[in-house]
Amino acid sequence: MPESPEVQALIEDVGARFVGREIHDVDVAEFRVTKTRGRPPSSLAGEQVTGATRRGKHVDISVGGSGHLVVSLGRHGWARYRDAGGDAVDSTDAPPTLIAFTFNDGDVLEFTDAGEWVSLGCWIVEDPAEVPAIAKLGPDPADPGYSRADFDRAVARRRKKIKAILQEQESIAGIGNAYSDEILHAAKVSPVAHAAALTPAELDRLFEATVGTVVTAIDAQRGIPLSGLKAAKVAAMRAHGRAGQACAVCGDTIRDFSFASTTAQYCPTCQTDGTVLPLKTSRNGERLSAGGRSE
């Protein structure tokens, strides 16, 4: 799932390419992506792009005088470009395009979805806050004004697992499964610890890791071509996706554990005082993947 660093890189690239250019045509290949029936994407034809902003994990493209194209990338959504006169992308080799915006010079911005179900969504609104998920967003740790007070309001004294809070968009915007693993590993905090049980020292480390991990990742991914952002994200991970590999800090083996409906990673030595967290298995004892399928 794209998280705030990848979405930030995306909107900066979209802004650099398309601000000041006019949308000529909109092709909706999958009607389920359209979330505002009263104002369909086709209504953007003839409008000029005036800006591009990230709101949590959402893309917000300003169009015309006061309109906004808000895109939720969901679990498997992403974007790509097609130059004027370029061949159509082969759907057998790449995720299918669900909605495409053609500009007045023929260049195309496509939004894709590689999942088994449609998770991509598009809204055309006057105010981004009309999108329910944006209206509920909490403070963003990438914002220069993000403070320890913002963090404490989200975390302190809550009887909820800290990994869940980090991924709770209403509390802290922009973080998902991958970066919450990275933050907790950097802070040396157990992902299943309740926030109310964390010591002042752990909260200090967690605040620094939350801001530092997100800001560092945004800086590192800035300017990377869209097609290379996923690989760059994977390469930078020290805990997430590293199950079976040695921890870069202590040398112990990074392990999987089951969390909510997915699988996450942690280091027992660095984070849980050696305790091994449970991993869901199937009835025949096989390890389950993040989607609940036997591996």
Automatic annotation (TrEMBL):
Q: Which GO terms describe its biological process?
A: base-excision repair
Q: Name one GO molecular function term.
A: zinc ion binding
Q: What cofactor does this chain's UniProt record say it requires?
A: Zn(2+)
- Give me the reactions it catalyses: Hydrolysis of DNA containing ring-opened 7-methylguanine residues, releasing 2,6-diamino-4-hydroxy-5-(N-methyl)formamidopyrimidine
Q: What SUPFAM superfamilies does the entry give?
A: Glucocorticoid receptor-like (DNA-binding domain), N-terminal domain of MutM-like DNA repair proteins, S13-like H2TH domain
Record-linked InterPro entries: FPG_cat, FPG_N, H2TH_FPG, Ribosomal_uS13-like_H2TH, Znf_DNA_glyclase/AP_lyase, Znf_FPG/IleRS
Please provide the record's keywords in A-Z order: DNA damage, DNA repair, DNA-binding, Glycosidase, Hydrolase, Lyase, Metal-binding, Multifunctional enzyme, Zinc, Zinc-finger
Protein name as it appears in the record: Formamidopyrimidine-DNA glycosylase
From what organism does this protein derive?
Mycetocola miduiensis
